[in-house]
Specification:
The chain is mostly helical. Among the domains are: about 60 residues, no CATH class; about 100 residues, no CATH class. The chain is built from 12 helices and no strands. The longest helix has 28 residues.
């Protein structure tokens, strides 16, 4: 049966629409543990996935927000009953408590001032954590309008105290005696860290692919004895030698 052009186009459009529909993975929003430095990333995700989601009711939004809060953040809205009218109030309470810009800046600076010290250059995991902590907090401060030039000198000195001695030597050699810039220091730190991570990965993979060592030639095998021990075992006891000698004399 011949279909009119309009019907064919409609069927083709519907077919294309069905093909382009992709099932997105379920978004699992991380819980907010009341750390001011994590508020902005939490709110940005929550706002996009829940707060501005028109398919969700206010009660559903409030219920979901409660399930994503921990510690003092959960306690801040614990007195609110689960009603639609309380959702906006809960959001205002959370924004007022954790969304204060200056408090967020203070928290990022506190993290940078209290970095963990890494004493061994072989501790790749701690060195990577140190680098990523510095980089993420510096990036967050920049997004808040705080350029690293305002605190770079202080942070550079702190970072050099936290790094192992051989890392400090590499950085000092490359930085020279001129005025140190934080971004240059972080670039050298990152380059040295990545080089060592690659070398460490190659050494680990290489050690795992080595052939097993052959057994030693003088290693005792189960059920056998060494030549020295065999020679001892083949020598007759002294009593037997004396007895044979005595018998030989008697016969003569």
């Amino acid at each position: 049966m011949f279909l009119p052009p309009s019907a064919s186009l409609a069927d083709s459009s519907a077919s294309t629409s069905r093909k382009t529909q992709v099932k997105l993975p379920k978004l699992e929003l991380k819980k907010f543990d009341s750390d001011h430095s994590k508020w902005i990333s939490f709110w940005d995700t929550f706002e996009a996935s829940v707060h501005k989601n028109k398919s969700l009711s206010a009660i559903d939004k409030l219920s979901y927000s409660i399930s994503r809060l921990e510690r003092s953040a959960a306690e801040a809205i614990s007195g609110l009953t689960l009603t639609a009218s309380n959702y906006n109030e809960a959001i205002e309470i959370l924004k007022g408590r954790f969304g204060n810009k200056q408090q967020i800046i203070n928290r990022h600076m506190e993290i940078l001032l209290n970095l963990d010290t890494v004493t061994s250059h072989l501790n790749m995991r701690s060195l990577r954590k140190l680098h990523d902590t510095v980089e993420s907090n510096v990036r967050s401060l920049k997004s808040l309008g705080v350029p690293h030039e305002t605190y770079g000198g202080l942070l550079s000195s702190i970072l050099m105290i936290k790094l192992p001695q051989d890392f400090c030597l590499v950085i000092t050699r490359e930085m020279g005696n001129d005025d140190w810039q934080l971004d240059q220091l972080l670039t050298i730190f990152k380059r040295e860290l990545e080089a060592r991570e690659r070398a460490w990965a190659l050494s680990v993979n290489g050690s795992q692919s080595l052939p097993p060592k052959p057994p030693k030639k003088n290693k005792r095998i189960h059920g056998q004895h060494s030549p020295f021990l065999m020679a001892i075992l083949m020598v007759p006891p002294a009593s037997t030698v004396k007895e044979n000698t005595h018998q030989g004399i008697v016969k003569h």
